[in-house]
């Protein structure tokens, strides 16, 4: 198939880094401006392409962690020590640098206000990125859809967007639960275990509420959460999943 | 090999088919289960991208790329609704 430039066709664009910030010791959020950005839906991705001086190219797919209303495209990139792309993005990329990307792509793992709820968002590790976009979109549009979120992280230090989650937890339509699976502060009052059927039963909406569920994280996490919810009587057709969102999947 | 899902290749699929394919309905050619492309199993690491049925492991889709040209085999699907060129 010839790759001709049809208007509206997916093309590589130059983005410029406007700010970077470590959210955890392993995850850096990178804010980008993209000239002519067409806008995105909460939960969509972009593909990022790096070109080495010898012409070798590597591509990765990252979830957009910002809301459509935010003004910047934010990617939260987890450093994978054996990665081809993430060590560069996390350790080398500076404000003012350019980055090649294409998108937004993907129309399945997205939430907009008309899709309604109640919402149940389940995040494992950096799988929180696209769900954060949904929560920010929810707030920006002053949606009244009730939201329950369950975020799983190894430790408090490894929990992405920690302060933002605390702020959200204080807002009315949001009910945020956090489980720390390996290390907990001594006074920790959240959950302290890996996600399982009992935890889901405690935190999820009752199946009769017909919640719309989004699960994102490492593959095993997503499988456990989805199977757990179906086992509790949730309709599989109301559960959308994404495996390894945000962690730089090689397309 | 790590299993991902169809969301991970949204960009590649859009590049090939000219529109979002992750929401497209599909039917497995072996077991007959239906679903959406976003939920099929995706594996990287071979010479290209291999998509398998999440129920029976049947190979649904193989994508390889040589000097900028994609080679796409979709014969593992019994049915695949590709996006309209006018969408
Ligand atoms: Zn099958």
Automatic annotation (TrEMBL), chain A:
Required cofactors, per record?
Answer: FAD
Q: Name one GO molecular function term.
A: oxidoreductase activity
Give the UniProt keywords, A-Z: 2Fe-2S, Iron, Iron-sulfur, Metal-binding
Signal peptide stretch: none
Query: What sequence ranges are listed for the domain FAD-binding FR-type?
Result: 10-111
Q: Which CDD domains match?
A: FNR_iron_sulfur_binding_3
Looking up InterPro entries in the UniProt record yields:
Cbr1-like_FAD-bd_dom (IPR008333), FAD-bd_FR_type (IPR017927), Flavoprot_Pyr_Nucl_cyt_Rdtase (IPR001709), FNR_nucleotide-bd (IPR039261), MRET (IPR050415), OxRdtase_FAD/NAD-bd (IPR001433), Riboflavin_synthase-like_b-brl (IPR017938)
Note the PANTHER family from the entry.
Answer: NADH OXIDOREDUCTASE HCR (PTHR47354), PROTEIN RFBI (PTHR47354:SF5)
Q: What is this protein called?
A: Ferredoxin-NADP reductase
TrEMBL record, chain B:
Supply the InterPro entries for this chain.
DUF6510
Any Pfam family matching the protein? DUF6510
Protein's recorded name: Uncharacterized protein
Source organism per UniProt: Kribbella rubisoli
């Amino acid at each position: 198939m010839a790759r001709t430039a049809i208007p509206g066709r997916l093309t590589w664009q130059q983005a410029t880094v406007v700010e970077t910030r470590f959210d955890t010791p392993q995850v850096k959020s990178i804010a980008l401006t993209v000239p002519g950005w067409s806008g995105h839906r909460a939960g969509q991705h972009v593909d990022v392409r790096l070109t080495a001086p010898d012409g070798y190219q590597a591509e990765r797919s990252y979830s957009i962690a910002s809301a459509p209303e935010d003004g910047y495209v934010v990617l939260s990139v987890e450093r994978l020590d054996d990665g081809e792309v993430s060590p560069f993005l996390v350790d080398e990329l500076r404000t003012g640098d350019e980055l090649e990307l294409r998108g937004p792509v993907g129309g399945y793992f997205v939430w907009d206000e008309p899709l309604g709820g109640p919402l149940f968002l389940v995040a494992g590790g950096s799988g929180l990125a696209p769900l954060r976009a949904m929560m920010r979109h929810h707030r920006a549009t002053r949606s009244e859809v009730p939201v329950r979120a369950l975020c799983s992280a190894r430790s408090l230090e490894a929990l992405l967007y920690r302060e933002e989650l605390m702020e959200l937890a204080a807002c009315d339509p949001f009910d945020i639960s956090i489980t720390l699976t390996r290390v907990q502060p001594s006074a920790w009052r959240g959950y302290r275990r890996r996600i399982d059927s009992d935890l889901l039963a405690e935190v999820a909406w009752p199946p009769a509420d017909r919640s719309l569920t989004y699960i994102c994280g490492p593959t095993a996490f997503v499988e456990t959460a989805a199977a757990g919810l179906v086992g509790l009587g949730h309709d599989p057709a109301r559960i959308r999943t994404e495996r390894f969102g945000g962690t730089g999947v090689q397309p | 090999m790590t299993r991902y899902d169809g969301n991970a290749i949204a960009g590649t699929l859009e590049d090939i088919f000219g529109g979002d394919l992750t929401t497209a309905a599909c039917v497995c050619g072996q077991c007959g289960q239906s679903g959406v492309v976003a939920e099929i199993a995706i594996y990287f690491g071979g010479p290209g991208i291999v998509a398998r049925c999440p129920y029976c492991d049947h190979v649904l889709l193989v994508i390889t790329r040589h000097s900028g040209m994609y080679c796409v085999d979709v014969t593992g699907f019994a049915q695949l609704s590709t996006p309209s060129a006018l969408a």
